[in-house]
Amino acid sequence: MTTPLRQRSRRGERLGALLVAAAILFSPPLLLVVDRMASATGIEGVLYLFGAWAGVIGLAAWLMESRRARGRDR
Amino acid sequence: MRHEAFILAAAFGYLALLFVVAAWGDRRAEAGRSAIGSPTVYALSIAVYCTAWTFYGSVGRASSQGPHFLLIYLGPTLAMLAAPFVIRKMVRIAARQRITSIADFISARYGKSAGLGAVVALMALITSTPYIALQLKAITVSHAVLVNYPAPADAALDQPSFWIDKSFWVALVLAVFIILFGTRHLDASERHEGMVAAIAVESLVKLVAFLAVGIFVVFVMFNGPGDLFGQVASTPALSQVLGLEQVPGGATGWVGVLILAVLAFLTLPRQFQVLVVENVDETHIDRASWVFPLYLLLINLFVVPIALAGLLLGGDGADPDSFVLTLPLAAGAEALPLLVFIGGLSAATGMMIVETIALSTMVSNQLVMPLLLRFQRLHLSGTGRLAAWLLGIRRVAIVVILLLGYVYHALIGDAYSLVTIGLVSFVGAAQFAPALLVGLYWRGATRAGALWGLGAGFCLWGYTLLLPGFAQSGWLDAALIHQGPLGVGWLKPYALFGLEGWDIYTHALLWSLLANLGLFVGVSLFTRPTALEQTQAALFTEALHPNLPSASLWQGQTTRGELGGLLRRYLGDAAIERVFVDAGDGGDGGDGDSRAASPRLITRAEQALAGSLGNASARVLINSVVRGEALDLASILSILDTTSQTLEYNRRLEQKSAELERASEALRQANDRLRELDRLKDEFIATVSHELRTPLTSIRAFAEILHGDDGLDADRRRHFLDVIVHESQRLSRLIEEILDLARLESGRLTLNPEHLDLAVLAQRSVDAVAQLHRQRGIALAAELGDGPATVTGDADRLEQVIINLLDNAGKFADRHAPEVLIRLERHRNRYRLSVEDNGPGISPEERERVFDKFHQLQHNDDKRGRPRGSGLGLAISRGIVAHLGGRLWADAGPRLGGARLTLELPLAADEPAEAAMNSGH
Predict the structure, then answer these.
(1) How do residues B821-830 score in pLDDT, each as one tens digit?
(2) Coiled coil located at which positions (chain B) (predicted)?
């Protein structure tokens, strides 16, 4: 009874952490750092955004799908 | 391929296909086999977020403002990561309360307030109109570009009157289309499964179209991304085109628009419709929370390359919003531009369909219905009249909404680029966020607070974005923007209170949300909510509580007949049957049924009405027949509290009873053990008394003879004294043994373990009994090996054991030619000393019992005069051997055929080498 509850809240915590991490990745302080290093066209900034975005989606997929699998097990 | 008629045919063919999909989806839903019961379809339907604004406008924006366009998609990514918390809660509430739209949701949260619902519906209508106009504009412009290329599209768009303006006809055709599949019937839960299926297909079409043009531009027009970016890097005019300097408002503007996108994604009427109202299964949210962001990523993948390519190829004259079309056209592609046009059409129509359906539901349920009910115009006889009324109202609303969009487009649409119109709508929709999201978690939020907040936020939105928009399109004096109203500088709409240098959306968002949230919280803190508001607040904020009652239960009273009559009047016979059966109350008993309606039935009836009319109107109708009140806040809270307390008590009780069970089990075992010990003790005492009495009796008898009869001769006297001495010895031996046994069993037997040679010990024992055996004629053979057999043990005690074994063997050996054999041998790392006789042996079932206390084998030939044992010898021997870490057991003798008793002791621990050497002999 207590274990699944704890697992669920644990997954919630991970998702919350991912949300915060995504918000930070998409926001100016990090973005400005990347932009400062970028070349004349600024393409690196766009690449960084897409990379971070894809990473966040990948992590979310992993979290969600492993949660689903475990949900079936129960 | 760009012939006018061909394009029209393709567009209509596409719409017809959508219609077929929608009809199929509806039929499946009616048959109970939902076509949209998949998380992926749910995620694709959410992609209605990507409108023509995404399809054409993103490229336009990327070419002028760098990565700014991405914010509109990064925001929803963040919102979807929070979806398992926030949207799940909204979905659960919407399912329980039969919510039909965002206006219905907010109205239900604040005490099913009709006024609040109407305000939200009106605001949604006003903020959405520009957005619909944007879609119309996108369709007409893309059509014009496609037909007129390479001539500029503008010439074709300047139509003197509306009946030859294509946008007007697009709006009308779409109105008919939406009426056909959006309001075909009135579903109790206001779900449109067919529509959702069609939207999912549209999302796929626009994604494929955009990816196709992206791949064409990057890999056909250029040699891959390297080539494209290389050319861009060597073009000085394009330096820093993607840098953050291009973002309006800088870092503040970036964060502002990011927040704006998060909020708008949750509050846009069409997003609420697909995210919450059309959700068929809460668990779909999990999958959608990453599939939808993935969709957004894919559809944006080629935005930057297309924008760069458009800028490179000298699209000076062309509108960047049309690069998606003009690039393939310029490259001479034939089929691709048509696919792009269909993709854009798809994006635009998808948005218009969902938005219009959501808005028309709000208009009918939150604006028109409450008015009609108030004026008693709907209290008509006849069954199911409401459905016809509602459908009529919604159809009119659909036409009106689309025409409003057309009017907006025709009058001021040209002054804005696509993105600008979209963001204006976003800021408007974001005004719902405080009432919607804060109300989801803060029970103290009140209706008055929500009204004030919404009103203030909406006014500031109008002042800081809508009015200047009118001014820019020439409706108002442009001096409003530059000098402020009546020349008051600090009231300039784009720089309110002198806040300059911000981009207009962040600026508007800041002021409007500040006023909105401030008033919402402030007024809430100083107003007292009504009982129903408190109840609804508790039901909303505690929506995920596992013990929450599914809806507020009615305590009021009415008859089943009255309730049935109300339902029949508004929903028709089919619905009334469903409600009565759902409530488990049996069938409808007709209007004359005077039995009291159960609280559950009243609740179900209200839900059914809410699903069609909205919460506020359903409330009014139920109130017209039910006397009494809905369950108040105190009752709900006490249900929540008592259930959680009860759960806690139950848990503790369970723990306690488990502990108790364990304790009583241990007690029971201890008790059993004690009883067993008690029984053994009784048995032991009985046996011991018996054993002690036998010698005592004979001692006493002989002593009495000696005492009473003085005339005994010396021989007889001597014989009697011998018997007395002998029996006394036996008695003291017996007592000695009993004491040994008692010491063994209580663990107080003191042994003096030392290294000793078992062979020597055995020899000594053999010598000790040899005389006795010889007297009895027993042939005693010993095979004790050569070397020392070192074990750890107490020499005296071990000798006692061996003598006991030899003595026993002598007693049980064959009576005519008794033989006893004692052998010592090594068995792995143990020594075994066995004593064998040639007697009858011990039967297998007796072999363990000979070690019981006072156990004596049946002596058939007891009269041979052999000394009887006490029956304790073997028990004591086994106890001693066990104390020394060895074993003692009985089996059949292999050599002499009688019984064999074997004593086994481990080698002395610290002399393995010596022992190993011995074993080598």
Answers:
(1) 999 888 888 8
(2) 646-687
Alpha carbons B373 and B376: distance in angstroms, whole number: 5
Question: Comparing C-alpha atoms, which of B18, B41, B406 is closest to residue B180?
Answer: B18
Instruction: Please give the average per-residue pLDDT across B407-429, as a whole number.
Output: 75
- The alpha carbon dihedral of B570, B574, B577, B578 has a sign of negative
Residue type, B730: R
Confidence of residue B524 (pLDDT cuts 50, 70, 90): very high
Q: Is the pLDDT score of B861 beyond 70?
A: no
Task: Provide the residue ranges of all domains of chain B, joining segments of one domain with +.
Answer: 4-373+383-531, 549-631, 647-746, 754-916
Whether B286 and A68 lie within 8 Å, measured CB to CB: yes
Amino acid at B573: D
Which class is domain B754-916? alpha beta
What stretch of H or E contains A29? helix A28-37
What confidence tens digit (pLDDT) does each residue in B648-667 have? 777 788 888 888 999 999 99
Nearest C-alpha of chain A: how many angstroms from B28? 27
**Cβ-contact A55, B293 below 8 angstroms:** no
Q: What is the mean pLDDT of residues B434-439?
A: 92
**Partners of residue B294 in chain A, C-beta under 8 Å:** 57, 61
- The answer for residues whose C-beta is within 8 angstroms of residue B41's C-beta and 6 or more apart is B35, B196, B197, B200
Nearest to A46 among B67, B81, B84 (CB): B67
In the structure, how many helices (H) and strands (E) does chain B have? 38, 7
Q: Does A22 touch chain B (CB under 8 A)?
A: yes
- DSSP calls for B324-381: HHHHHHHTT-SHHHHHHHHHHHHHHHHHHHHHHHHHHHHIIIIIIHHHHHHTTTT--S
Q: How far is B84 from chain A (nearest CA, A)?
A: 8
- Say if CB B269 and CB B356 are below 8 A apart: no
For residue A22, which residues of chain B lie inside 8 Å, CB to CB? 77-78, 81
pLDDT grade for A72, boundaries at 50, 70 and 90 = very low
Binding-face residues of A in 26-55 toward B, CB within 8 A: 26-28, 31-32, 35, 38-43, 45-46, 49-50, 53-54
Q: Among all residues of chain A, which has the CA nearest to that of B232?
A: A41
Q: For B368-397, how does the pLDDT look when each residue is reduced to its tens digit (9 = 90+)?
A: 888 877 776 555 544 556 667 778 888 899
- Inter-chain Cβ pairs, chain A and chain B, closer than 8 A: 101
Q: Which CATH number fits domain B647-746: 2.40.128.50, 1.10.287.130, 1.25.40.10, 3.40.50.150?
A: 1.10.287.130
* pLDDT above 90 coverage of chain A, percent: 24
Q: B4-373+383-531: what fold?
A: Sodium/glucose cotransporter (1.20.1730)
Taken in order B681, B682, B687, B691, is the CA torsion positive or negative?
A: positive
Cα separation of B854 and B746, whole Å?
A: 18
From B232, B251, B301, residue closest to A28, measured CB to CB: B251
Contact status, residue B245 vs residue B332, Cβ threshold 8 Å: no
- Please report residues of B whose CB lies closer than 8 A to that of A32: 244, 251
Nearest to B229 among A18, A43, A50 (CB): A43
Is the ipTM value over 0.95, yes or no? Answer: no
Selection from B264, B314, B282 nearest residue B53 by Cα = B264
| Cβ contacts of A26 on chain B, cutoff 8 Å | 74, 78, 258
For B855, phi then psi, to 5°, come to: -80, 130
pLDDT 10s digits, B96-119: 888 888 999 999 889 888 889 999
| Residue with more model confidence, B420 or B399 | B399
Q: Is A2 part of the contact surface with chain B (CB cutoff 8 Å)? A: no
Distance of residue B332 Cα from the nearest chain A Cα, in angstroms: 28
